[in-house]
Amino acid sequence: MASNTTWVVVADGARAHFYASDGNTLSPALDHDVAVPTRSTARDAQSDRPGRSFDSAGYGRHAMEPPTEWKTQEKRMLARAVADELSEAAGKQSFDRLVVVAPPEMLGELRQALDKTVGQMVVAEIGKDLTHMPLHQLPQHLGSSLKH
Question: For the chain, what is the total number of helices (H) and then of strands (E)?
Fold first, then answer.
């Protein structure tokens, strides 16, 4: 196992960055980030108009809502992709501790997506959006969560 290696995942609803720390420095853990393809509008995310239904009594017709809003679905897809990356890295013993940084809603999606093994490696959760924070400023926002 990578001795005393902490990974930090910084995510929002559209992207996730992976960093590694030995307790002193923070550096990219992977050669890539995970991101959801960008959409300019809700119309671009949906293939066509919602279906229509008749009233149960009478002759009125109404548009049906999609079962899940597209942004929520994309957050779930991103959480699943992040969880898959972490499971693969944990299987290779790339880290032994995990810090998850995300806005509260995304933090909940990530909690649900993580498998049991990776979930047990989580030592801290920070409910903030720090995806646009420069790498050199991240450690001051992580507090003591990088310390072993």
Answer: 5, 8
- Residue 18 lies inside a defined structural domain of this protein: yes
Q: Which domain holds residue 21?
A: 6-36+54-146
Segment (H or E) for 96: none
Say how many domains are in the chain: 1
Across the range 102-122, mean pLDDT stands at 95
In a domain, 134, yes or no: yes
Q: What angle do CA 45, 48, 54 make, to 5 degrees?
A: 130
Question: What's the CA gap between 23 and 8, in Å, rounded?
Answer: 11
Q: Which pTM was predicted? A: 0.77
Q: Is residue 42 domain-resident?
A: no
